[in-house]
Design goal:
The chain is α+β, with helices and mostly antiparallel strands and about 270 residues long. About 40% of the residues lie in helices and about 15% in strands. Helix 5 (about 150-160) crosses helix 6 (about 175-210) and helix 7 packs antiparallel against helix 8 (about 240-245).
């Protein structure tokens, strides 16, 4: 019997570091006869790094059972039902049209929508198996030319995906993952605070000199901006991919990229 599957990743983003954490994989499968099944596969390596208020659990899932996968056959998990519109909702057609959907697939709607559930910070994005890795091997020269703060962020993002990290003389795995994560997060926040302070001082100085005008710029994490600009310069990201990563329009990204390159040239 034919079936169709929708795959997503339940995520949460740290509002201070802006690092995304992958909490669980979620799959919705529906068959021709109308039978359906939800599967939620927690990523415990990531969950163990987090705690309140950032993460308080997955609604309807008892993570204390440590199940490899939680299965809901022919019933919608609480996590999905409390976030997605129901079939009987009066404006369901308008909600589907807004996401360019012909029929209600609740998991697909959660993946597409920008609407956020007010009860917690969890959201769903599409699962991309091509970007999944189980190990980050620094011995293979993964980060040529990357600066200190960017390296710390890269390690945090790898831990946020549940990866094991291996270097020439160290490994970050189940034995030390939580302690190293806490240390890296503290280091990154200190560096970010320093960069934000310098940027604020630069804006204030420009304002005093009458050089700062126009509408307020969209706030972008300076360390992430530098990392994305360098990756774009090396040809690893297209302008559109870079803009999407930063949450900017392509035009705005080009402007920030030009400013970044001019700043790099003047400091060299």
């Amino acid at each position: 019997m034919r079936s169709k599957a929708t795959e997503g990743v339940i995520c949460v983003r740290d509002s201070e570091t802006l690092v995304e954490y992958h909490i669980a994989f979620i799959t919705y499968t529906v068959w021709e006869d109308g039978e359906f099944c939800y599967e939620i596969e927690p990523i415990y390596e990531v969950i163990e790094l987090l705690g309140p208020p950032l993460f308080r659990g997955i609604p309807g899932i008892n993570l204390d059972l440590r199940e490899r996968v939680y299965i809901r056959r022919n019933r919608t998990p609480v996590f999905v039902s409390e976030r997605a519109p129901s079939e009987n909702r009066e404006d369901v057609r308008q909600l589907l049209d807004a996401e360019d959907m012909e029929y209600l697939n609740k998991l697909e709607w959660l993946i597409r929508t920008n609407t956020r559930y007010p009860g917690d910070s969890l959201y769903v994005r599409r699962r991309d198996r091509h970007e999944e890795r189980h190990e980050l091997d620094l011995r293979r020269g993964c980060i040529p030319g990357v600066r200190g703060a960017d390296s710390v962020r890269m390690l945090l993002e790898a831990l946020g995906r549940g990866e094991v990290i291996r270097g020439a003389q160290f490994a970050i795995d189940e034995n030390n993952r939580r302690d190293i994560h806490a240390l890296l997060r503290e280091l990154y926040l200190k560096e970010k605070t320093y960069i934000d302070l310098r940027r604020s001082e630069g804006v204030a100085r420009a304002a005093r000199q009458g050089k700062y005008r126009g509408r307020k710029r969209k706030s972008v994490d300076d360390i992430k901006l530098r990392d994305v600009c360098e990756r774009h310069h090396r040809g690893e990201l297209t302008a559109r991919q870079a803009a999407t990563t930063l949450g900017l329009s392509v035009q705005t990204f080009y402007r920030r990229y030009r400013e970044f390159r001019e700043g790099e040239a003047s400091s060299s």
